[in-house]
User: What shape does this take?
Amino acid sequence: MKLLEIVFLAVGGLGGVFLRYGMTKSQLVLGALPVNVLIVNVVGSFILGAFAILSQQWSLDQKYAMLVAIGFCGGLTTMSSFALESSNLIDTKQYSLVAINVIANVGLSLGAIFGGRALTSVILGELR
Assistant: This one.
């Protein structure tokens, strides 16, 4: 790995981590379901979907994938926090909320990837 790639990875990761911290420091709860992690996972997935199209259309250098896809989106989204929140809900026997949490995180994150790709493709198509 080249030094420039390491810098891009570190800068992207740092940006994602700070944004995640800012978005999750105050607990947001919808009913009894914590939604902070859901929000960062969906936002990060949308950004990643949009970036996937941009990087293809603009033939971006791999260092930008290090910055945005691996660094920023990797630092922003969080599987471990999602798993911890789900296990905490299991510990308190809130099984319906576990199901909602899992379906929402996985389903909405997948939907956000597709949404980011679709929206970016439409925007790029209109710019031509």
